[in-house]
Specification:
single chain; mainly beta; Jelly Rolls; Immunoglobulin-like; 2 domains; 2 helices; globular; disordered N terminus
């Protein structure tokens, strides 16, 4: 993201000098930061899709009739992150952003997808207008099998979504999903990354840089996929149904055998925001996912920063880290030199500082600033 916040630029420069162990542009075939269109103006949902920032020229297209249920908007910093302009999504209104057809490696090799997403809770109704009780499934991404399809059809397959308020991802088999065990909080930013390894039929789902669930399909259960010719749809835009049995969701795009409720897929388009979409033609590692996330970290003063796993603050001797889990702590001085780089155990840790001045401290990849 092309942020103009000077402090963030300094932080990213310092961190990249010492801790970027991988090149997060390697294998990147599409990168949409939602900041600038292909004509160097602000993106819009009609004639100015965002530019592909990978340098490969794989620019997306806006699809669907007007009015579309998506647009682009500048938002303030939130949840400790900087996003600037994001893609906003309105519930139950079709229209989608489509990546360049043929860039998605599904059915022919490895791929990884990473993006930020912010979801609001919403109710849905079935085709008769009746409320679907307990529904908490929302779609973020889908894809077409091709050849080079640009419109949504009943064959459009859901790729990334919420199932019962938990993040889910398509495995290497068709219509087979893995689901994270923990429900999300509404109206909060999350980083979502799915990694698919073709040779081993393994799918991994990372939320906020941590592996939450993975699955390897046994050889005898592998279903051969057709090579994907179409592109990935950010949002979906209709074209198919979600079927329910006895008011319980049984999956997306399943056959309507004995279905008691039928919901058009456009009604489960998520209400919220999406940003920093990246598509790779290789598997990315957990450490690379953390590096990708660092692009959006907003360094906050440690006196105002609290995390569910740690707290950090100053005392008369230096800086104190109270951590519930083991942590990698790196401290930089104002010139960018590393003062400390070590793994600490859980509990209270006092890190002495010998000189007064400005410092940056990175704890498990999260960056904070302080003056001692």
């Amino acid at each position: 993201m092309k942020t103009k916040v000077l402090n963030l630029f300094l932080i990213m420069t310092l961190i990249s000098m010492y801790s970027f162990s991988q090149d997060i542009t390697d294998g990147l075939v599409t990168y949409l930061d939602m900041e600038t269109s292909i004509n160097d103006v602000d993106p819009n949902p009609v004639d100015q899709p965002p530019m592909d920032m990978s340098g490969l020229g794989n620019h997306p297209t806006n699809r669907g009739a007007n009015p579309k249920g998506f647009n682009y908007q500048v938002i303030p910093n939130k949840d400790g992150f900087i996003f600037n302009r994001v893609m906003i999504s309105e519930h139950n209104i079709p229209g989608h952003l489509l990546t360049e057809p043929g860039t998605f490696n599904r059915g022919k090799g490895d791929y990884s997808i990473a993006f930020w997403v912010y979801v609001k809770d919403a109710d849905i109704t079935d085709i008769n207008g009746d409320l679907v009780e307990g529904h908490r499934d929302f779609q973020f991404l889908s894809y077409n099998n091709g050849p080079a399809e640009t419109q949504v059809s009943p064959n459009t397959t859901t790729l990334a979504f919420l199932k019962n308020q938990c993040f889910a991802a398509l495995t290497t088999n068709p219509n087979d999903y893995i689901v994270s065990p923990t429900p999300i909080e509404w109206e909060k930013w999350y980083h979502y990354a799915v990694v698919s390894e073709y040779a081993t039929n393994t799918t991994k789902l990372y939320i906020n840089g941590r592996l939450t669930v993975e699955k390897t399909i046994p050889n005898e259960d592998v279903i051969e996929l057709k090579e994907t010719k179409g592109g990935i749809l950010l949002r979906r835009g209709g074209g198919g149904n979600l079927y329910y049995y006895d008011n319980l969701p049984e999956g997306l795009d399943s056959l309507p055998v004995n279905a008691t409720l039928t919901v058009p897929t456009q009604r489960v388009i998520f209400d919220g925001m999406m940003d920093e979409f990246r598509l790779y033609n290789r598997t990315i590692s957990e450490s690379e996912i953390i590096e990708i996330m660092k692009v959006n970290y907003a360094a906050a003063d440690i006196e105002n920063t609290f995390d569910s796993n740690y707290r950090v603050y100053k005392n008369d001797y230096g800086v104190v880290v109270e951590s519930q889990i083991p942590a990698i702590v790196t401290i930089y001085n104002s010139t960018g030199s590393i003062v400390l780089n070590k793994k600490i155990d859980s509990g209270n840790q006092v890190i002495p500082l010998n000189h007064y001045g400005s410092y940056l401290i990175s704890i498990n990849g999260r960056v904070h600033k302080f003056i001692y």
